[in-house]
Amino acid sequence: MAAAAAAAAVGGPQPPQAEMPAPGLALDKAATAAHLKAALSRPDNRAGAEELQALLERVLSAERPLAAAADGEEAAAAGGGGGPGAAEEEALEWCKCLLAGGGGYDEFCAAVRAYDPAALCGLVWTANFVAYRCRTCGISPCMSLCAECFHQGDHTGHDFNMFRSQAGGACDCGDSNVMRESGFCKRHQIKSSSNIPCVPKDLLMMSEFVLPRFIFCLIQYLREGYNEPAADVPSEKDLNKVLQLLEPQISFLEDLTKMGGAMRSVLTQVLTNQQSYKDLTSGLGENAYARKSHEKYLIALKSSGLTYPEDKLVYGIQEPSAGTSTLAVQGFAGATGTLGQLDSSDEEDQDGSQGLGKRKRVKLSSNTKDQSIMDVLKHKSFLEELLFWTIKYEFPQKMVTFLLNMLPDQEYKVAFTKTFVQHYAFIMKTLKKSHESDTMSNRIVHISVQLFSNEELARQVTEECQLLDIMVTVLLYMMESCLIKSELQDEENSLHVVVNCGEALLKNNTYWPLVSDFINILSHQSVAKRFLEDHGLLVTWMNFVSFFQGMNLNKRELNEHVEFESQTYYAAFAAELEACAQPMWGLLSHCKVRETQEYTRNVVRYCLEALQDWFDAINFVDEPAPNQVTFHLPLHRYYAMFLSKAVKCQELDLDSVLPDQEMLMKLMIHPLQIQASLAEIHSNMWVRNGLQIKGQAMTYVQSHFCNSMIDPDIYLLQVCASRLDPDYFISSVFERFKVVDLLTMASQHQNTVLDAEHERSMLEGALTFLVILLSLRLHLGMSDDEILRAEMVAQLCMNDRTHSSLIHHIPENPNPKSGIIPGSYSFESVLSAVADFKAPVFEPGGSMQQGMYTPKAEVWDHEFDPVMVILRTVYRRDVQSAMDRYTAFLKQSGKFPGNPWPPYKKRTPLHPSYKGLMRLLHCKTLHIVLFTLLYKILMDHQNLSEHVLCMVLYLIELGLENSAEEESDEEASVGGPERCHDSWFPGNNLVSNMRHFINYVRVRVPETAPEVKRDSPASTSSDSLGSLQNSGTAQVFSLVAERRKKFQEIINRNSSEANQVVRPKTSNKWSAPGSAPQLTTAILEIKESILSLLIKLHHKLSGKQNSYYPPWLDDIEILIQPDIPKYSHGDGITAVERILLKAALQSRMNKRIIEEICRKVTPPVPPKKITAAEKKTLDKEERRQKARERQQKLLAEFASRQKSFMETAMDVDSPESDIPMEITTAEPQVSEAVYDCVICGQSGPSSEDRPTGLVVLLQASSVLGQCRDNIEPKKLPITEEEQIYPWDTCAAVHDVRLSLLQRYFKDSSCLLAVSIGWEGGVYVQTCGHTLHIDCHKSYMESLRNDQVLQGFSVDKGEFTCPLCRQFANSVLPCYPGSNVENNLWQRPSNKSIQDLIKEVEELQGRPGAFPSETNLSKEMESVMKDIKNTTQKKYRDYSKTPGSPDNDFLFMYSVARTNLELELIHRGGNLCSGGASTAGKRSCLNQLFHVLALHMRLYSIDSEYNPWRKLTQLLEEMNSQLGNEEQQPEVPILYHDVTSLLLIQILMMPQPLRKDHFTCIVKVLFTLLYTQGLVALSVKCNEDDRSAWKHTGALKKNTCDAEKSYEVLLSFVIRELSKGKLYHEEGTQECATISPIAWSPESTEKYLQDFCLHFLRITSLLQHHLFGEDLPSCQEEEEFSVLSSCLGLLPTFYQTEHPFISASCLDWPVPAFDIISQWCFEINSFTERHAEQGKALLIQESRWKLPHLLQLPENYNTIFQYYHRKTCSVCTKVPKDPAVCLVCGTFVCLKGLCCKQQSYCECVLHSQNCGAGTGIFLLINASVIIIIRGHRFCLWGSVYLDAHGEEDRDLRRGKPLYICKERYKVLEQQWISHTFDHINKRWGPHYNGL
Questions:
Q1: Angstrom distance (rounded) from CA 96 to CA 108
Q2: How far apart are CA 1055 and CA 1697, in angstroms?
């Protein structure tokens, strides 16, 4: 075959070589290879080289295989029938042989590896690989390590985390450019180049010849396989086909790279050698195939040029003209038009598109490099063409891995990086066209992050290949394809273009890889400096940023709701953050010191230019267009952040980088518009725009965005405010917030731009904004640590936070190299300074807390800053939450009992550059506003809230704190041109203006206003009016007019130099449309000053006259040391007092005036005339208030009622008496038990025709089966050696026993000798509430019709208890019975035991007919059906004859057994605690017994076989003999399980049972149990012990108490059993197994007591439930005696004797020796034949330990590392979602379709097999525990927490996790007590898919 294929290859156009005829190929390949190698080793090796070339030509010709793949007939012809893959395989075989030069390929690999100077790890991984990142060791933020290097290095105490790689990566261990050497692992620490011998020449000689051909062959395949995709058909399929065929070749190359450094350097030579590339691929020469291949390559190249009209540029560039740049401009302008951003008609219209294109393009094309960047690709080496095809094929994973595997070779790294940069534009084009842009993005970043994280490399490429130019240009080009006209401001004439956020490019984040590379290289100082120095680049970049300026414009819907809510805002925010803000932060991080001032000046300069262009382009004059807002102003933010940096770090003079006043006015407009829009959005004014507008408002302030969005905006406004005229600024604010009209003294006004219902919240918004503007110091002088602290305090005040949510909520400095990395030292130290850690707590009721941080008391006391909280809240409710927590703190610490106001917090001092900001507080406009608002609040004008007052006082206080100079006591008369306000206030200083009295104010009011009716005060005093001449108009026009005037002044001042066109006045928009005529002027008498208003306000707030008394009159000290803590927390009254005190402190005049005002007894406030309309609204308010109060009262009452119910119903430990269900036994006169129905509320007995039932939950349980007999809990396996075998579990032991019995004995008898239900037993539990069964049926009916999706399925009978909402699925009927009867039954009778035995036998003999068809009996039947259906068939059917009644019989008494055993476990495995059952009132055993007994009595045991007779009568010996003859014998009575016998006996009796019958049964069974103990003991001890006992016992046999002495009985048992073969067969090895205990009398007694104890416990529990007797509590050592006397086994007089002997409880019904010998006889006849089994059956292990879940290791990493790579035993794959069962340690695939069986996924299947429907799984990749219960599942939470006490679900943070023992205990407790259903709330159906 090989020969044929090779010969076929020769049949190409080239003539066959003479030296090697074709048959020669049939020789062994190895021989040929060896021959060639020898030939090449000679000094003159030309002949050998030619020979080799010829061979390679033939073997590695690419002509055949892919054609073969393409169409079948050719394949058959060319490949000689070998199929398409055969030829390639053949070629690969040849290559391997040739490389090895005749030796074995594996040996060759090993030889090459020996020369590997592995200083670098370089392991390449793909997406989803688990890797590590250590910030302590990393130099680059992208540093990552593979798990092996990480664990072998020493990272203790470092800040590291584990992460799942998203795009793939490579291990940096050993690379000192990326990480510190201290973090290298052991393997890569040694700089090993010195001690590695140099590579022998001949080892790799063949490789140097063979590999170029091989790689060329690969390239030819790639050329051949690529067909330009047709426009409509995506070509992925064809490409993938080609790639699949090439899989072996690429894998071969990949294997070569793994041979280590020696082979890599050969590959590097081959890949980068330009000569051999030229020789092989030029496409010249005689080989037609090579020519064709070269043509395909050229076509591919050409088609990859821009497919847009820019194509012509490719040709344009060849003319060597100097005008390239102009050419570029035209080309682009054309492109801009044709890309469909503007109408095509615009293209000719010079002004339109061309102008736009030009303006933007000219800047771009100032670099003539662009064209070549975008369109010219020339390949000079294999590497370049390989990368080209890699891109063409959209980065196939295998190729990427190969290219990356080569990176440890330094030479290759440089060459590859240059090649990558050279192809950068081409990558972008391919990415844009790709259908799989997501995968492709990941693969691109996988490569680029390896190249650009290395600073040295990045610098080199920047210098040599213009990396920065390329990147910026490519980004610009990319965004150009999706530009649209901006509609901001001037829709018709706007020349500005913005990106369209609806385009796929933005929506799918396609630009992400390019931007991420750009951010990555900007993190290197050397590169960033190049960028900041290059003016051309900066211009281009600002151009790029301006594409985002004003994107995603929102227009307020005024009429109807939008039909379609666009979600483009996600794309817009992501784009601004990633494409604009992050590069900005990258640049800022390099502008930290004085020497970098120049950079800042550059950026600021071009930023302002871009902004000016933008204002021009959108035709902006002075008013923003109404009802529009864009949240995206990246240019403003660049400008702001560079200003901030300049002042903070570079000591630049702020004024030197600020523009003129006019520009500042423009700059402030749009950020201010955003602030006003935020208030509008929160006031629901944008509600017709849908939810998305709220989403934008939230995103804008959200922690990831705030420091790139709202913070720069506020800072920019602060800068503008500090430099502009304060009156102008303040009036602009109120105008933007549309509340100018509200600021009038009149009681009524008309707002022309705002609906009345929005006024109040907009006013709050405006005032809050001013407070934030004036108090925020984030960029105005706070240090980084102070900022961090303030942010942290704000977050902690809103809510207690986990460590990770703090890191998440605190705006991180977005540039990773900045130093404030969350988790860094400063973060932790600040955190410990401001917060206390609350360790995770576990409420037994379920919700598990995580470790939380809560603010320290002193933080609440001094640092709680409401302003910061308001700034940082995404949801308004968080502000409320912070205030509530603050209130609670004050109440608790006794600082303030009432409802406090937000505290006033002292601010850090302002940086000197921003001092101007405080002028806002000292301008008349603001004082007028404050005065007006105080007046309105005092007069109770509408619409003013406490919040408004709070903010007004806050502003006054800020003003007092920041008053400029100590004003002199003489009034400084202020002259000057500004006469406008003099009527209001004399000067600008708040301190003096506070005391200024204002007498009259002229206001414009609607004619209906009450003020108009008053007499004008003019008549009274004309002179006073004269003095008011110009004051009247101040109020109504001042704000707006004032602003216009100022603006005009500034404009004129600026434009006088350059005679600009006079701008149109746009202000007419704002005049009130048609509402002016109704306004009239009125004059109000006020006669107040701010101080007097404050004092009156104090009276109003406190509700008392003259409540304010100046404190300094009593205590002059106050004025000297004013900081009085008493004023720091409190409500409005406190605030007013604090302000008055500060005012008095600042000036003596104020102090005097305050005293004067207080001296005058304040006249009562004049009663307002109330109009009818107002009265109506007042009444309405009052009525509302009353209704609200009523509702509150009702709710409170309801809540308290509910609370008291919950306390009684849920309290587990409360005494029994308060639950009506309990049947009390105290008063005999009560005739019947009374039950309350929780549905209809009636009480009454349960009757035959209207039975009552208990709400119960039936569930199958395998908890019992998990008990083991050793104390050491099993550990979860974490290595291959540790495996868990289930043979020692209780379930397994019982299974073995039953099958052993069934092998040798009669089936029906076997099924009476044991219990089942260790696995899949049915556990019944109740919440204790009862209901009528007919009520329950109608309740279920209503649930069925209720379409709400509940967490349970009504069809399966599931419901929740109507009262306590506990989960349930059945109703257990209560048996009608009276208590009196009960009392009679309990009276002790004096009958002898023999009589009682007869009675029991008779009662059992009576057939139990089922009661007549009553409702009760029907219910009993249906509940029995429910019980059966609860568990799977395999857990019910153990009989050999399917469906035999014995099965049901066994199942029923086992249900009782399961419930008793589980209750015992819940009590901790013993009854020492005694008392009423912890599950007391919740126990339903009594009712359950009735149901079971009723059904069991339907099956009568044939009296012949009733074990009762064997226990109580001596039978004739013959009988048992007979049985053996014709069929399998009965099970010998000594093999019976005594507890099972007890339940059978009791359930066979008619109910209710008499107490003396019960005691009789127990006594009889105890004799059997004791005998079994003796027999087991005799089997356990060795021959010597036996003979000794036999001897001692025989001596005492004739004493009076012989039947109650264990020695006598033991010796008798030994004697009897010695007759058979039981003891004989003991080999020597047997002795060794049983530990050689010396059996002392004490140890024997202890053994016997332990043997019997379990039975006594179960029996006592049973007695407790049947007869309601309390269990006595006792010490552990006396448990046996206490229980036996409680059960009536101990004779009463026995108490005296001291050492307690268990045998004294025996009460033999017939002579002991006779009956024992009868029982032993059965054993002997069995052991005749089966001695081994006979012995095994006798030793029963009754000492099971409590069940436990597997023990987990301390550190989660041990579990993770072992299991996340482990293969599944079923499908042998590594599962995507591995999980492990915490009960038995089985490893399973969660949701794995691979392991699905009969439509059940593996976890669900396992939960049925291992836990009978309950499964507890640990999800390895998520660290969470998932619970499966039947058809539902829930996420339980995690038992592994990090150092800060919190879970890490899905291992997102990847921090080390440690076991939380308390949580694990809670989980185990819920498993054992079967309370998963009740405690966990979030259940969902799993549809068998887990």
A1: 9
A2: 120
